Amino acid sequence: MSSRSGRDYLESLRDGREVWLDGERVKDVTRHPAFRNTAASLAGLYDLALDPGHAPVLTGEDGRLRAYGIPRSYEDLVARRTAYKTWAEASYGFLGRTPDYMAGGAAGFAAVPGAFTTERFDGAPHALAYHRRLADSSLYGAFTITNPPSAPGDGLVVRAVAERDGGIVVSGAKTIGTGAVFADEVIVGTIEPLAEDDVEHALCFSVPIDTPGLSFVSRPSYEGRARSVFDNPLSARFDENDALLVCEEVFVPWERVLTYRDVGATAAMWWRTPAYLNFVHQSATRFWTKLEFLAGLAVLLTRMNGTDKLPQVTQTVGRLLGMVAQAKAFVLAAEASFEEVDGGRGGVAPGQEISFAQRIMAGELYPRAVQEIKLLAGGSIIQLPASAQDLLHPELGPVVRKYLRAPGTDAEERIKLLKLAWDALGSEFASRHEQYERLYQGAPHVYLTMQTWAGGAEACEELARACLDSYGLEDGR
């Protein structure tokens, strides 16, 4: 068994899936200018796994991608993180929901299949089959687990509208399907807390992207708006897309239903299994990589501008490198504080307390890092030629090359670096990433509240209480 090739992956996307953009149905995401480069970048990840130099890192002894494995030890966690890092570096951290993200979630489900078993419905064999299906065929799984704004009874949120002998019929919508248009399957569920009696929306299932009645409405494509890779080096290649998922009487076979009409199981699949902790492990590794890229960008900018020796500049770069070290430390600490899953029967998972804390750090740190680098770059990232065509023009080119060079750097190299910086820091693509990193693991009011019960509060209280109890009024004499 081995990972599929990039060519195999691209061919799998030509399945007639219903994707909409700008009022147009996209016939083929592998050829459409709004999606083709990102699809090719994702295909490159699969090819990396077949490359002899990378295969030992990205795949296990069974030939499967390492991300699909259930870690049984600290060493397994480190090996999986090394695989995560390799893929993250291929997109400089800008592709977040790559196939290894949901692979970790599927491994989490398989680690504790009992979380899917209830009196009314037993989704355990389906969860195990989902993991096996993804792992055996190196499938790209995505999810849509956020509800659109709705009022009770308005029928906007995905729900079952009928039951049949072979499965259920579902209708409704879910939002922020990141990467879904590039995936093989999509999980449709909810991670938001549901009222105890809201069994109508308490369901989760996974279906192929080309399922009849299933459609995706894409947000604006930054790749589609890119002038060229030279002008938009990140957005032209790494726009993973976010889409609205719409179900119009979609038939879902019972064997693809993971939870059904059970609020407890619909929540437990994320929180009683290590699925969510596995998500954080992948995303924290990617975040660390992304900060490395941004810090490197800052170094290149200051050296080109000749400001790298100024004390205030070196301090800012030092602060950025400190942020990189923080991001790295959270990953290593989560691994080192690993916890047994289901009494050891489900292997191990990164430590919950550190994993939850990483969400707070990342959401607060990323905007600060972007702001610091913007200040280092100054106005130079604004005054740029409209496109590479200005440099290539026989009359205009020499003018641009004369006036937009810098000491020790010719105009082409200077413009190339500044366009990369703008794409990472100031473009619409960059704004999406800043907002996305703020909310990557949920809204602050959710994850900050969760941190209070993730562990540590009682120990902190006990230490403060010990100090308080170590003296009394008699010590005031």
Please characterize this protein's 3D structure.
The protein is α+β, with helices and mostly antiparallel strands. It has 17 helices and twelve strands. It has helices spanning about 5-10, 35-50, 55-60, 75-90, 100-110, 125-135, 220-225, 265-270, 275-305, 310-335, 350-375, 390, 395-405, 410-425, 430-440, 445-455, 455-470, and strands spanning about 20, 25, 140-145, 160-165, 165-175, 185-190, 205-210, 215-220, 245-255, 255-260, 340, 350. It has a six-stranded mixed β-sheet with strand order 2-1-8-9-5-4, with no helix packed on it. Strand 11 (about 340) and strand 12 form a beta hairpin. The N and C termini lie far apart (about 75 Å).
Elements, N to C (H/E):
HEEHHHHHEEEEEEHEEHHHEEHHHHHHH
Count of runs of 4 or more consecutive helical residues: 17
CATH class wording of the largest domain: Mainly Beta
Number of domains: 2
In short:
The protein is α+β, with helices and mostly antiparallel strands. The chain has 17 helices and twelve strands.
What are the defining features of this structure?
477 residues, alpha+beta, Butyryl-CoA Dehydrogenase, subunit A, domain 2, Butyryl-CoA Dehydrogenase, subunit A, domain 3, 6-stranded mixed β-sheet, 4-stranded mixed β-sheet, 17 helices, 48% helix, globular
